[in-house]
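Hey, sorry to bother you again with one of my protein questions. A protein chain has come my way and I'm curious about its shape. It would help a lot if you went through both lines with me. I owe you a coffee for this, so here goes:
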Amino acid sequence: MSSEPELSAAAVAAHPTAILEAVAAGRGDAAARLVGLGFDVNARAGRGQNFVTGATALHAAASDNDVDVVVVRALLSLGADPDARDDAFHGTPPGWARYGDAHETVVLLEAVAGRPDPA
């Protein structure tokens, strides 16, 4: 029987973007548990996934006006990078929030980001 660390490592290898997938599915509450299991909060979507290539969980949370800003705060507390740029549009989470008209999230992310996207 495999040990818990081995199972966690296998899960991370099989589903490296689990946090992104959870946030996009409305399960931002799962992010802390997934980080505790070894998943990377800054894992980036790859080609062929149903996400913009290079997007992170913070991009997904920021762009979705239905996601509570509490999820964005939780991701930041877990180490999510507010300056990460996706590969397709080179947008940061604050830029995605602006695009999604998530005003409260824009204010939060621009306060912690190193360089806001041009409007």
User: Anything to note?
Assistant: The first helix runs from residue 4 to 14. Residues 94 and 117 are 7 Å apart (CA to CA).
